[in-house]
Amino acid sequence: MSKIAFVFPGQGAQAVGMAKDVFEAVPKARAIFETGDKALGFPLSTLVFEGPDNELKQTANAQPALLTASVAYLEALKGKGLAPDYVAGHSLGEYSALVASGVLTYEDAVKLVRLRGQFMEEAVPGGQGAMAAVLGAGREALSELCRSVSEQDGPVALANINCPGQIVVSGSVAGVNAVVQRVREAGGKRAIPLEVSGPFHSSMMKQAAERLSDELSKMEFKAPSVPVVVNVSALPVTSPEEIRELLVRQVYSPVLWQDTVERLIEEGVDTFVEIGSGSVLAGLIRKIDKNVKVININSLESIEALA
C-alpha cells in the first residue's frame, strides 16, 4: 500500500518573500505568521517578506522564519486530501515535522527554534568554527579522514549525511580547512566551505544543547499522530520523552538524512511531499532513490495544482 511522508527543509532554504502568497490568500496561513509575530515579540513576518536578506540569514532569524513558512504552507495544504503516514525534517525542519504530527504547538515550536538559533550562534565565538560540503567521498573514508585530522589539527566530524556523494563536515576552522585540503584522501572530488555562523551538528555545539535542554523541559510534548523519523537515529519515534531527548542530541549529532529517507522507503513510503521554502530536500531524495515520487509544496500555485 502506498505511503506518504511529509518532509520539511532546514536552514539554508530561507528566501525573502517565502510564503507571502499563502499569507495573502489563506487566512489560516496568515494566522500562523500573526501568531509567530506575537510569540516572538517582533515582526518576523516583515523580515520574512521584506528582508533584508543578510538579517534573514542570521541563524536566530532563519530558524523561526523557515519553521513559520513551512507551517503556513502546511495549513494551506489542509483539505487537499493529502495526509502523511510519517513525517521527518532536516535539522531545523524536524521542528516543523513535530508541529505537523501534533507533538508541539506552532507557538511553542517557534519560541524554541528562536532560542535554538540564538544558542547555536552563541556557543562558539565567531571565527572559531566552520563547515564544508564534501562531494564524492565515501562516508567511512571521510569519517576516517576526520578522525585523523582531529588528532592533528583540531576537531572536525561528519555533520550532515545528505545523499550519496554529498556529506557536510563541521568543527574547528583548522580542522575543517585540513579536511578541505586533504579531501582527495577520502575519495572526494572537492570540498566547498559553507557560509554559516558556527560549526553546527558537531561536538562544539554541546553548550548550545545544554541550554536548549533547559528550554525543552518547559514545553509540553504530546504523542505524535504519525511516527517521526528523527535525524539522530533515522528511526521512527513515537515517545514524547524520547523525542525531547533526541532534540537535545540533534544539536551536536550528525543529521542522518540519507538514512532517514532510506528508512522511510523501507517503511513503504513511495511519495515524499516537501513542504516549505525551496526544493533542497526534493533534490537530495531523488539522488537517494530516483524511483520515488517527490512533490514540492513551496507556493500557492503548487498547492492549487493538487486540486
Description:
- This is Malonyl CoA-acyl carrier protein transacylase.
- Residues 7-302 form the Malonyl-CoA:ACP transacylase (MAT) domain.
- The protein has 307 residues and is α/β, with parallel strands linked by helices.
- The chain is built from 14 helices and ten strands.
- Strands 2-1-9-10 form a four-stranded parallel beta sheet, sandwiched between helices. A four-stranded antiparallel beta sheet has the order 4-5-3-6.
- Strand 4 and strand 5 form a beta hairpin.
- Helix 2 packs antiparallel against helix 5, helix 2 (27-40) packs across helix 7 and helix 5 packs antiparallel against helix 7 (106-123).
- The chain is globular and about 55 Å long.
- The mean pLDDT is 96.
